[in-house]
Amino acid sequence: MGIIAEENRVVYYDQENQPKGEVTFPDIDQDTVELNHTFVDSSLRGMGMAGQLMEAAVKEIRRRGKKAVPTCSYAVKWLGEHEEYKDIVKEQ
Questions:
Q1: How far is CA 51 from CA 12, 40, 44, 58, in A?
Q2: For residue 70, what is the domain's CATH number?
Q3: Could you give the number of structural domains in the chain?
Q4: Is the pTM of this model over 0.90?
Q5: pLDDT tens digit sequence for 3-47
């Protein structure tokens, strides 16, 4: 099935339509979300799925015209390694 953007998260669904990974980004206010959780099923770990989910999440956040506050340790690390997305990070 693939990666799907939903309300405040992106989810990877497998061929049986089962969720196998997600990045969540609930609203803090009307202009800001919190990148607060990354999960990948153990069967997919080490295959780059977390990075694909994070990229989909930040693209969706950018598309919505919002800024993000990363609180998930993976989000903090990933955004630190991907300067091309620093424009979505809210300065604190």
A1: 12, 10, 12, 11
A2: 3.40.630.30
A3: 1
A4: yes
A5: 999 999 999 999 999 999 999 999 999 999 999 999 999 999 899
